[in-house]
């Protein structure tokens, strides 16, 4: 299987969970930023688990990818302050010792809600 670059993987996760959360309706900026925080934290966690450390440029790279994707997806509607809040939330999530469980629960809830809306 061919490996994908991190930009494509982050964009895929963002697109997937934004689409599931929206479920053919509009999505709130708060919901979108929460998804971004969890996706960002998840990728930072993956890098840390693989390398046993994460560098500042890797963190900035993840946030840059999310910012670029959201600026395009939301046509510039998200402010710089909102991006900073998202980045802070993402790093706070990682500091929680239960992050892995919280992340699974967060993403599973989006999936479950999306499936129940189809019924």
Automatic annotation (TrEMBL):
It comes from the Bacteria. This is Uncharacterized protein.
